[in-house]
Structures are given as structure tokens and as C-alpha cells.
Amino acid sequence: MNMNYLLCGVGGQGTVLAAKVLAAAAIAKGEEVKTTETIGMAQRGGSVTSYVRTGHGIHSPIIPLGAADVIIGFEPGEVVRNIKYLKKGGTVVVSTKSVMPVTAALTNSTYNGDEMVEYIKKAAENVVIIDGEKLCNECGSDKVLNVILLGAAIKSGAVGITLEETKDALLKRLPAKLHDLNIKALELGMRG
Amino acid sequence: MPEQLVMGNEAIAFGAIKAGVKMVAGYPGTPSTEVLETIAKNNNGNIHVEWSINEKAALEVGAGAAYAGARTLVTMKQVGLNVASDPLMSLNYVGVKGGMVILVADDPGPISSQTEQDTRHYAKFAKMMVFDPSSPKEAYEMIQDAFEYSEKYGEPVFMRPTTRICHGYQTIELSNEIEERTVEGFVKDSDRWVIFPKLSYNNHIKLEKKLVEISEDLNTYRFNTVTGRGTKGIITSGVSYEYVKEVVGDREDIKVFKVATANPFPEKLALEFLEGLDAVLAVEELDPVLEREITYVCGKYNVNAKVYGKLTGHVVNAGELSADKAAESIALFLGEENKFAADETSAVGAPELPARPPVLCPGCPHRASFYAVKLAMKGKKTRYCGDIGCYTLGNAMPLDMVDTCLCMGAGLTMAQGFAHAEPDVYSFGFIGDSTFFASGMTGVVNAVYNQANITIVLLDNSTTAMTGHQPHPGTGRTMMGDVVNCVDPEMILKGMGVKTVVTADPLDLENAVEVVKKTAEKKGVKAIIFKSPCIAVSKPAQREVIDEDKCINCKKCIKELGCPAIVLKDGKAFIEKSMCFGCSVCETVCPVQAISKAGGDK
């Protein structure tokens, strides 16, 4: 089955690893995969978008507008930025915690993450809201937001990949000492 | 091997290894960098792999190896080719013995480059073949073909992937085989290897003849294809071909000409494509190269087909394409409604989005260096010439410390122009360590010789940060895994005749400010080396916290530094613990000592 996943967030949040896990899970099922990323010139702090396309006969590495089955959002503002890619009837999984750009602090114009989430709820039919900060704290690591969101995405049923398939793909990419932490994160994400 | 997800640049690297490459030289540049890195990582010891100090050096190192008969790969980004253009424009006349592929990555957008230049023009200018892959999978095959063609005609060839090929991933089945090739060795022949006007004249004649032959040959090249039928045709190449396919799908009523070799242009195949067409749309990124080629063929052979593209406003003439943009162009060309991906989520009244302009990382030593100069020169008339690297981001507010940025190495030399034209200013040239080795050193000699009154600020973070932390002569590590003597910029500067060279730690802000104040007042060429490692190659220190009771809410830390780790929380400055690197510069900035290391006073 052809699937288009869009993952978006801010540089340093781990979107790229999550994209790789989805791709690996699809490959394990014998699908063809094309992925690409849009990353700005800064090493950290910029908008990051990963496109993962799986199935057969995929041409463009970038998902066309209105063709994403699932958007996995690491940051609510970034989801709003990318909502035009979402297919009608598509699913959004979003972490509520906003990441302020340095410009917001400078101009005294901090934006409201809740406002973004409210907008996403109106724009998309299926929205899974995750308190990423709280769940990261429960895991005791601020590096597992990506895995938590993957867990939530699997639970939503919209990604077409099972927990076991994801776990296999994920653990292969991580050193053994991080396995327990990431399994916990995956499970917490599924619980939501 | 089973199918695996391979990055385009990795695919090119594995293809080159399979083709028996023996010499790989390059200079880092997004989006080309991973090609050389992948070969270094997978080197069985039979390949010499090096980061040369710049693209010109890389091409010349490569030329030597290719003259000796070794299969050679030289890698760079598009603007790097400008640096290498001097050897390039002679090498084409001389030719090579071992197959030589010059891998030049173009960057439509541009996403991380100064220009949207199109390397296909260079191919035409230099009378060279250019291979233009449309996917990572094709790139893997094409690099192997490129070596074959280079050897067959005794000429260096270009391969020019674009960002979406370089950094795109695709499932590919890689082979473990390596073509075993022996290097014959150099055969002395002054009439062949020593360029003189007479040789250039003779070889120019031969080269023109060869180009006709190659064009003939490329008519049947496996990745140059014509599909479909009808009276409307699309000519396209590279990733644009994939966008066109995404839009056109299985439609058989449109002809599609995929051009994998824009130069020399496969004319006969183009005529086959034009057969029965009354209109052609050229869908390509960067410049209208195919559009002009097909227009030329129409004129030359009196074909009555109208050509549309960038020159007629049917295709955008700047920025990268996408399937969506291609769909608009194709709908306009065919006079059809654009039904492509019309099933978009209806999104109206979206809240205003935060801009995320590129900024220096939290804890980046460049922030401290720029801030030190800013404080030291407050109230003085200054010119701050920046350069290419992470430190270009010193232009962002609130630092606002980059007045100019032109190209690699231009900061030091432009500063001299300002100093001569405006003798009353304090003129600064900022340059990073890798850029200094790449193209800064000659500028220093120029300044010393021509008596410029400038301050050189060498931002030495011990790596090539922006392209992903490659080693360089100052790091003492090579791509062959050897640990070698570090080339010391301080000794270079002194050896070149710079009388005042001061090394300081920018994170010791108070001292750094004093150093700048003192040094800038001296006459002539003087240099400050701000030495502090990139945060990506060092370990974080104890993070900082703001004592809410002491904080007077002046927000100076935010307004002065623009550090991404310091944010506003409930109207007050707050340090995000996950982002802070503990550089402690904000401690120095705080007027009431409200910021200190977490876990008590240090």
C-alpha cells in the first residue's frame, strides 16, 4: 500500500531518526521507499521537514500538497506550516509543546502553542494530541520525543505499521544501552 | 545484498567504489559532502581519499592521478567549481588517461548556497560531458557509466546531481563487487601533458570533433529516453523528470524526453522526440538549458514546434521545482485544469507562524567572538566583512555583526578594500579556520604586501562546522584515518609577516573584549585568533540557570546575545535546560549576576 508520511519539527528534535524508522519498517515489509528532508542552513533551531514515501511506483521524493496520509508533528507551529500537505481525511499526531524561535524572545512576540493546536483540530479530521513534555519527563529523557510520537502514531492506526515492526526497525538503529528507554517511550506514546 | 535505504550521495560513492576508483579528492560543500565521506568510511585501503584544502587543489590532485591512469573522483558543490575553474578549463584540452569524474552538486533553491548557478553551463563552456541523474538509484548506475565514458574518450566528465538526488534516499540493491583495475602509471609525453598554445590549438580541433562523436554516442545512452506519443511533448531531466512522472502518471498521450546528458546534447534522439510534436514544454530546475537546446534543434532542422518553459513564463525561473509546481506548468501548457492532488485539507485562517531564521547554536563560540568585537568597538566607525561558514549567521539580530558576505575567502580581502577606500574606519575581516586554509591565506599575504590597515579575526573552532564537521589541516586528522601534525594558523600568520597575532578564548568574554580593543588600535595588519571548539565536537559544560529572585527582568541576556536557549517564559527570561550548553557568556552579560551554573555557584 502506498503511504506518505510527513514528519516536521525543529532541528535537534530527532525527526530524521523517526523518518528512518518508518522507512525501515516499510522496507522490512518489501516496500520501495523514497525519503528526503528539508533542512535549513543552521545546524540547530530551524524548521525541519522529512518526507517518507512508501509503496510502489513512487516518483517525486517530496510528498505533493494534499497527499500526506499522516503528519507527525514534533511542534504545533510546524504542523500548521505543513498542514497543506495533509490529505483530506488524513491524520495528525502532534506534540503540544511549542519551541520558541529566538526571534520570538527578541521581539517579545511569543506565540501560542494552544492556538496552533486549536487550529489543527479545525483543519484536520483526525488529530492525536500528545503532551510530549510530560511523557518525556516520565521517561526521564528529553531525547525520546520522536519515539513517543511514533508510538502515538502507531496507536492511531493511521500509519499501517505495527508496534512490533516499529520496534524491530527502531532497536536495530540504536545501541543496546538505549533499548529499554526507547521501548518505554514507545509504550508511553501508545498509551498517549 | 538486499535492498536498503541509501542516500543519493552514498549511492554515488558506492558506485564509484564499484567502478574501481583509486583517487578521491574534494572540498566539503552542501549538498556534495557525503560522497567523499562515504568512500572514506568504506575504503578497503586501496583508495586514496582526501579533503583537499580547496576545490582547485582537489581537481589538480585528481588530474595528476588521472594522468597516471587511476580512476579518479573529484567532489565539490557548484560554487566550488568556480574555484576549480582554472585547472578545469585547461584539463579539458589536455584530457586524461584514467577515467575522471568531477562530481559537482547543484543546489536549486538555493537551500544552502550563495548562488543558483547551473553546472550544465560549465559543461558546455568546458566542452565536457555532463551526467544528470534523476534518482539515487540511477545515480548509482550513472557514476559507473560516467567512468566508462571518460575513459572511452580520454576526457574528464561531470556528474551533476542536485540536492534532492544527493540528500534523497531510495531503496537500492547495492553490489559488493569491485572492478579490479591496475594503474598503468604516467607515460612521459610533452606533446600530450604540457599545455602550450600549439597543443591547445590542435586539441581544440580534436575536441570539437570528439563532441560530435560523443553526441552521436549519447543518442543511444541508456538513461536518455523518449516515451509516450502525441503532439505535445515535455523535455526534462534530473529530479524534474520524477516530478513530471508524478504528474503525468500513466498518460500515454504526452511524449516525455528525459535528458540524462545535457551536454553534448543528443540531437538525433531529440529529433525523434520532436517527430509529430507541435509544442514542447521544458521542465527543468536552475537555467533553461534544455529549453535552449531543443529550441536550437528546432531551428537547425526546421522543426515546426513551439517551445515553452522558463523563457515563456510557463516554468518558474528561480527556486526549486516540485511535483506541484510541475503540475501547474503542465496544466498551463496543455490548457487543462490542474487536478493534481486537489484533495487538500481545507485550511483557512491559519494563525501567524513563527519564523525560524537560521541562528548560531546555543553555546556557539562564534557568538562570544562577535559579541566581544561588538562591545570593544562600540561607538567606533567599523566595517565587518564576513565570510562563508556558520559564522555568516553572525549577521542575525541582535548580534548584527556581518556587513558583507560574498564568497569563500572574500572577507579578508574585502576588508582591505574598505580600509583603503575609507581610511577612517576600523576594518575587520572575519574568517573560519577551514575557510582560512581554503582561500584566506593568499588574502593575508596581499594585506601584508599592500600595507592594509585591517584586523583579521580568525574564528578557530577546530572543525569545518557548517558542512558537518569535516577535518582540515588544523585538526591533525586525515580522511585516511591518519593522525598528522596540525598546521597552525598562528605560525602561518606570523610567517606571512603579520606582526601582531593574539590568541584568545572568546568565552572569557572580558579578556576577549580587552584583546580586541588593544589589537584594533594597532596600525597595519594584525590578527586575533579566537580559539574555542565547536559545540558539536565538544562536551557541554554545566548548564546555566537564572535565579528568579535576583533577576530584575531587564532581558539584557536575550537582547544582547540572541541565544536560542534563552527564551521568554511568562514574560521573564528563562534558560531551556535541554538547549543550554553552559558556555557561560550570559553570566557575564547579566548586570545583576542572576545567572550562574546549575547546582550552586561555581
Regarding quaternary structure, what we see is heterodimer
Largest pleated sheet of chain A = 6 strands, mixed
Structural class of chain A, by secondary structure, is alpha/beta
Per CATH, what is the topology of chain A? Pyruvate-ferredoxin Oxidoreductase, domain 3
Whole-number mean pLDDT of chain B? 95
The end-to-end span of chain A amounts to 26 Å
The SS-based structural class of chain B is alpha/beta
What spatial form of chain B do the alpha-carbon principal axes imply? globular
Mean pLDDT reading of chain A:
91
Measured as a percent range, the helix fraction of chain A is 40-55%
**How many angstroms separate the termini of chain B?**
55 Å
Shape of chain A: globular
The total domain count of chain A is 1
Strand residue percentage of chain A: 15-25%
Number of helices of chain B: 21
Structure in words:
The complex is a heterodimer of chains A (192) and B (602). Chain A has 192 residues and is an alpha/beta fold. Chain A has a single domain (3-191), classed as Pyruvate-ferredoxin oxidoreductase, PFOR, domain III (Pyruvate-ferredoxin Oxidoreductase, domain 3), CATH 3.40.920. Chain A contains 8 helices and 6 strands, in the order E-H-E-E-E-H-E-H-H-E-H-H-H-H. Chain A has helices spanning 15-28, 76-82, 102-106, 113-123, 132-139, 145-156, 163-172, 179-191, and strands spanning 3-10, 32-39, 47-55, 68-73, 86-95, 126-130. Chain A has a 6-stranded mixed sheet, with helices on both faces. In chain A, strand 2 and strand 3 form a beta hairpin. Chain B has 602 residues and is α/β, with parallel strands linked by helices. Chain B has 4 domains: 3-218, Rossmann fold; 225-341, Rossmann fold; 365-531, 3-Layer(aba) Sandwich (Rossmann fold); 545-596, Alpha-Beta Plaits (2-Layer Sandwich), CATH 3.30.70.20. Chain B contains 21 helices and 22 strands. A 6-stranded parallel sheet of chain B has the order 3-2-4-5-7-6, sandwiched between helices. The mean pLDDT of chain B is 95. At the A-B interface, helix 1, strand 2, helix 2, strand 5 and helix 3 of A face strand 1, strand 8, helix 11, helix 14 and strand 20 of B. Strand 2 (32-39) of chain A pairs antiparallel with strand 8 (169-173) of chain B.
